[in-house]
Amino acid sequence: MSERAQDTGLALERTRLAWRRTALGLAAGSVAAGRLLQELVGPVSWLVTLLGLAAATLVVRVVLRRYASTAWRARGGGLVAAVAVGTAVIGAVALLVVLAGQARLV
Amino acid sequence: MSAARRHLAHQGRRTRVQIPRHGRARAGAQVSAVRDNGGVSPSPDRRRPAWVYSGGDEPDARFSLANERTFLAWVRTSLALLAGGVALEALDLPVEERLRLAASVVLVALGTVTPLLGWWGWARGERAMRRRTPLPAPIGFAVLVTGVLAAGVLVLLGLLLR
Prior knowledge:
The complex is a heterodimer. Chain A is an all-alpha fold.
């Protein structure tokens, strides 16, 4: 049975939207992180925001390409692993900031 | 082993030998080959992680997509945990300080672990679906529930003891 003939229905669209939601969360988080880190590292913190927004854009672009063809299966789990590791790294940095007692906004 | 199975095994071996020789530069060529095959790639193939893709055959596309969405839900959960944990400390809430820090650390640590748990679940699910074995029991639920519960109790105590 060829995959072309297989009707995936709206599953592809739902998955694309799920990626977008996730990227949007990352973008929103990086804006908040930039504001928060301003107290800690000064105006350079906006680099964090920029980096986060760039990463979110990259994810959306990669996903658009990933599902553009019927051969999306051929891509494997590289993107999934990259996103998992990236998020874990963000978490590790956040843990360091919190433990250092630097997460003070007010 | 039937003739058809032998033929498939032979095809698989040939694919496995050929693809590394072409390297990454020929990835496009492999994709078009996959498309010629109706989108179903030959297995075994060179997709990563190899321990996921090395055996079995392609599951229903919708199952793979649902698996991916589950992973993404874990990532979003992680982002929410991180935001909550950092906000707890950053917004100077009226909670006893040490308990607040403890809750914050629990939430942020949880947010660090959950994307990895999500990836682990994704990989195990994909592998099980390829091999037509029962889906593994969900992992990480106990960690997630225990952690969120602990953070909640810490904040509650912090509010009362303040």
